[in-house]
Amino acid sequence: MNKKPNFDGMSVDELWQLHEELSQVLSVRLTSEKRELEKRLAQLRREKEMRQPESAEARSAPRERRKYPRVFPKYRNPDEPSETWSGRGKQPRWLTAALKTGHKIEEFVIGKPEGSGDGSRRRRA
């Protein structure tokens, strides 16, 4: 097999015969290779099925959600006081519409409750 065949010196019939022999050998080898790969794939699937119940149990346990701090509202709709916005995420429709009509966002800021300012503190006597 070390020696290269002389294709130039072969007739068309000899080359065709060589082609058919090569095709047959390749077909047999490819079929056997495919069988080996299918066996390996079936083995891997069996191994995966054996491990799957273990991981399914781990996945079924509910994870606790991360506790986020409560975000208080910063803006309020003066027409509908129950509608508020914390300033996070997309602006609500009522605020977007008001801003388009010429209002400023500072107009909707929820102020501190009356009497909480520095000037209204009373000293105990």
Which characteristics define this entry?
125 residues; mainly alpha; two-stranded antiparallel sheet; 2 helices; 46% helix; H-NS_C_dom
Task: Give a brief rundown of this model.
By secondary structure, the chain is mainly alpha-helical. 46% of the residues lie in helices and 3% in strands. A two-stranded antiparallel ribbon has the order 1-2.
Query: What's the count of strands?
Result: 2
Number of helices: 2
**Strands of the largest sheet, in order across it?**
1-2
| SS-derived structural category | mainly alpha
Percent helix among the residues? 40-55%
Poorly predicted segments: none
Strand content: under 5%
Principal-axes shape call: elongated
What composes the largest sheet?
A: 2 strands, antiparallel
Could you characterize the architecture of this molecule?
It is found in: Cytoplasm, Nucleoid. Keywords: Cytoplasm, DNA-binding. This protein starts with 11 loop residues before the first helix and ends in a 25-residue tail after the last helix. The relative contact order is 0.06. The protein has helices at residues 12-60, 93-100, and strands spanning 75-76, 84-85. With 125 residues, it is mainly alpha-helical. The mean pLDDT is 84. Among the domains are: 13-52; 75-108, no CATH class.
Task: Please describe the topology of this protein.
Elements: H1 12-60, E1 75-76, E2 84-85, H2 93-100
Antiparallel strand pairs: 1-2
